[in-house]
UniProtKB/TrEMBL annotation:
Residues 1-22 form the signal peptide. It holds the Pfam family Rotamase. Residues 440-453 have a biased composition (Pro residues). It is found in: Periplasm. It comes from Pseudoxanthomonas helianthi. The PPIase activity resides only in the second parvulin domain. The N-terminal region and the C-terminal tail are necessary and sufficient for the chaperone activity of SurA. The PPIase activity is dispensable for SurA to function as a chaperone. The N-terminal region and the C-terminal tail are also required for porin recognition. InterPro entries: OMP_Chaperone_SurA (IPR050280), PPIase_dom_sf (IPR046357), PPIase_PpiC (IPR000297), PPIase_PpiC_CS (IPR023058), PPIase_SurA (IPR023034), SurA_N (IPR015391), Trigger_fact/SurA_dom_sf (IPR027304). PROSITE patterns: PPIC_PPIASE_1, PPIC_PPIASE_2. Its EC number is 5.2.1.8. This is Chaperone SurA. Chaperone involved in the correct folding and assembly of outer membrane proteins. Recognizes specific patterns of aromatic residues and the orientation of their side chains, which are found more frequently in integral outer membrane proteins. May act in both early periplasmic and late outer membrane-associated steps of protein maturation. One of its GO terms (biological process) is protein stabilization. GO terms for cellular component: outer membrane-bounded periplasmic space.
Length: 453
């Protein structure tokens, strides 16, 4: 999907550590927050707030007061810092080659060259080094999420069977939005009472039509998607926590329910609209036939050694060697090595979005450049593609993926909440960082708690 430069700058501004530059060395650039052993500079915060404001240029009334907006953006920057630090401590890295490829891809998606992208970034007041660092942080966080999903998220056959049965009965999809008033793990009675008072105040504003739901989410929600108006997008039944499903079935579009007490705190849930799931479900999928060579990263084989091996394998193939023969000799995927790296036919998302995008960009017979996944370094040869009916096996795979996404969202938000609660975070020059909105009837002051979903 083509991204606008403005959108990319929001990502950049919410990225992690910003490289030292002439601007950041000026005496006027203060520290906005200390996050464990890292810092967020005031210039980072100002730039991030400015870009969020630009995104709402046509809807300025949707934004909260400046001090509240700064607090929300600062919390996002804090979470990004914490995620990047956790990824780095877990050995998750992004090489310069991977970063160069990602930046080249962004330029291509925006119909320009690297030099053209550099000029457009500079015109928007961001240095190219800062932009590259923010892209690196985004990739790092994506890999942290992938690693988290692989280690923590399990989907049972019973869950898949139940979701398949619901789809067969003509299920409905729901467009949802929410407002979260977060509570810390092991909240005290006083913290719970404060949270209850705040969420009741927000609900009162909505009931009296004194504020639109998305505006209230931007202003008051503790959820990471607050600045998106709390929008959760379209969800099928298998992507919604079971506790909410029966409630949704009795709601009308536009209705708000809650507060509902959940693992992360109190929630207000809005049903934006509904649609027939059968109308939205795809009938055909693109499948690919491919082979691959994998060189794993292990405690005895670091990323550099693995990269050297995959580069050698890629050079042999480029020199005319048979891909299957090289796979039998060099691949460290024991499941496919003996068959020359044969993967058979599979949908694009079978091995994750990055893997699928690499194959989709090839012509039949072409081989990817080396790329890295959580498993290690790969090269892939595409042998064919086809359009296939979505059969039971594919539907089961899709259902399993949607259930996994829903579970990942829930568990990862709790993971963020835990990290935020354990971290040392000190706001500087932000006396109003925890300020309470004063619109009457004002919700109670927010409990100092991590954002979570």
């Amino acid at each position: 999907m083509k991204k606008s430069i403005a959108c990319l700058l929001v990502i950049a501004s919410l990225g992690g550590a910003v490289a030292a530059s002439a601007q950041t060395l000026q005496p006027l650039d203060r520290i906005a927050a200390v996050v464990d052993e890292d810092v967020i500079l005031q210039s980072e915060l100002d730039r991030a707030v400015r870009n969020v404001t630009q995104q709402y240029a046509n809807q300025p009334g949707q934004l909260p007061p400046q001090n509240v907006l700064e607090r929300q953006v600062l919390e996002r920057l804090v979470l990004m810092k914490l995620q990047v630090a956790r990824a780095n401590s877990s050995g998750i890295t992004v090489t310069d080659d991977e970063l160069n490829n990602a930046v080249a891809g962004i330029a291509q998606q925006n119909g320009t060259t690297i030099d053209g992208l550099r000029q457009r970034i500079a015109a928007d007041g961001l240095s190219f080094d800062e932009f590259r660092n923010s892209v690196r942080d985004e990739i790092t966080v994506q890999r942290l999420r992938q690693s988290f999903a692989q280690s923590r998220i399990q989907v049972s056959e019973a869950e898949v069977n139940a979701a398949m049965a619901a789809q067969a009965s003509g299920g409905t999809q729901y467009h949802l939005a929410h407002i979260l008033v977060a509570l810390p793990e092991g909240a005290t009675p006083e913290q719970i009472a404060t949270g209850q008072k705040k969420v009741d105040g927000i609900k009162a504003l909505l009931d009296k039509n004194e504020m639109e739901f998305n505006a209230a989410a931007v202003r008051y929600s503790d959820s990471p998607n607050a600045l998106e108006g709390g929008d959760l997008g379209w969800r099928s039944v298998d992507e919604i926590p079971p506790a909410f499903v029966e409630t949704l079935k009795g709601m009308n579009a536009g209705q708000v329910v809650g507060p509902i007490r959940g693992p992360s705190g109190f929630q207000l849930l809005k049903l934006v609209e509904t649609r027939d799931a059968s109308q939205a479900a795809p009938k055909m999928v693109t499948e690919y036939h491919a082979r691959h060579i994998l060189v794993r990263i292990t405690p005895t084989q670091d990323a550099a050694a693995a990269k050297a091996k995959i580069d050698t394998a890629r050079a042999r193939v480029a020199g005319g060697a048979d891909f299957a023969a090289v796979a039998k000799e060099a691949s460290e995927d024991t499941n496919t090595r003996d068959n020359g790296g044969e993967l058979g036919w599979f949908p694009a998302d079978a091995y994750g979005p990055d893997f699928g995008q690499k194959i989709a960009a090839l012509q039949d017979g072409q081989v990817t450049e080396p790329f890295r996944s959580e498993a290690g370094w790969h090269i892939v040869q595409r042998e064919g593609s086809r359009q296939s009916d979505v059969g039971d096996a594919n539907r089961r795979s899709q259902v399993r993926e949607t259930i996994g996404r829903r579970k990942l969202e829930e568990e990862y938000n709790r993971f963020l909440q835990e990290m935020r609660g354990e971290a040392f975070v000190s706001f500087r020059n932000q006396a109003d960082a925890a300020a309470t909105p004063t619109t009457a009837p004002a919700p109670a002051p927010a409990t100092p708690a991590p954002s979570g979903g």
